[in-house]
Amino acid sequence: MSLTLYYHPLSSFCHKALIALYENDTPCKLHLVDLGKEPSRGDFLKIAPLGKFPVLRDDANGRVIPESNIVIEYLDQKYPGRTRFIPTDPDAALRVRALDRLFDSNLHVHMQKVVIDRLRPAGQSDALGVEQAKGQIATALSVIENELTGRTWAAGEAFTLADCAAAPALFYSDMIIALKDRYPGTAAYLQRLKSRPSYARVLKEAEPYFAMMPK
Fold first, then answer.
1. Whole-model pTM over 0.90
2. Hey, is 25 helix, strand or coil?
């Protein structure tokens, strides 16, 4: 097996890469990384000095691919399948990438801010930062609610990179702001994502680890 994905089942950006692998049933070994324990941490840092996952290793091509977006585009180029994550039409590709940035830069990173703050030791939380992040989340969700009108998937009828980005960002954001109460279109879209076999598999595999999530 040529491909190995270094990941953690709770990592939202790892969810993004796993969706792409599972969409096309791409053969890949999964290597779980525990950054809190040795030798797992040390071994991973030898491959990824920045200590961020997911990272894809392709032994057949002698490549190590960091970052979820680059992993997905690499799979699209080197290991294409029935689902193509970046459209061949340049204008459609730009649209998909713009939506991907909407989910990642304007929702995903702010969601992570709130979740990570809950893991901080007592007395070291960033209350102001969390409130600002929640405001950014609400703004992004309002934009997303409008964007999704009349669409099955983020960019239209085809499942793309944008949907890989949307799934974990919305799944974890729903734990912070109940989507169905304020963003019904987005909540319905999240249900479609969770019912998609690729993301349903990711969530099923993550279930044993959800108890580790902060309340």
1. yes
2. coil
